[in-house]
Known about the structure:
Layout: H1 5-16, E1 20-25, E2 28-29, H2 56-59, E3 69-72, E4 76-81, E5 91-97, E6 114-120, E7 123-125, E8 128-130, E9 138-142, E10 150-160, E11 171-182
Parallel strand pairs: 3-11
Antiparallel strand pairs: 1-2, 1-4, 4-9, 5-6, 5-10, 7-8, 10-11
Amino acid sequence: MKLLMPALVLASTVQAHYRFSKIIVDGVPEAKEWTAVRQTKNYQGNQGVTDVNSADMRCFQNRPGTSTATITAGGTLGFIAASAVTHFGPVQFYMAKVPESADINTWEPAGNVWFKAASIDAVKSDAGWTWPAYQKQTVEFVIPKHVPSGKYLVRVESIALHQAQSAGGAQIYLSCAQVEVTGGGSGTPSPLVAFPGAYKASDQGLLWSYYPVRTTYTAPGPKVWES
């Protein structure tokens, strides 16, 4: 029986982790994993990123992309979590426009190219804290109607706070999808930030206190672009 314990513990740990491997466009899910989503380094182990200074904070990429999905500005784009979002914390969505001269399959989103398109943040009530994305299999947002048409990387991140009592304890589960936005507008998304660079391990949005209980919480990073 003792020989089985490490395996049981490992299985339990892996099941608690997750990955975002498929997208859903206006209610229609992809049939296979890693189609429009670039395959991530956790495609087998489901682990998250804990070093916010790592280049893995961009797309956690294991291999280049192979496909691009199409969505109309104002449409709903979702990411499907293998199993579900099994840790509490915020879920955020960033977008980076791919230069017209670049190949979307291989473009590296380095530098100040990302803007925050949406955030599913904590909700505080008299009863305590709730996390709307917790235990959801699909997390979604609306592509801003005024975002310019073109090809984008869309980055989802789920920030797990269950071990985030000290700096470096947050686990970030992320993926990047390759999409082409049509029917867009003439907006200028801002502010633009870089990964790594947008977060510091000491950011209050990457820390969580069980006691004393937090009275406020704001997810890390810039404000959502109000298009």
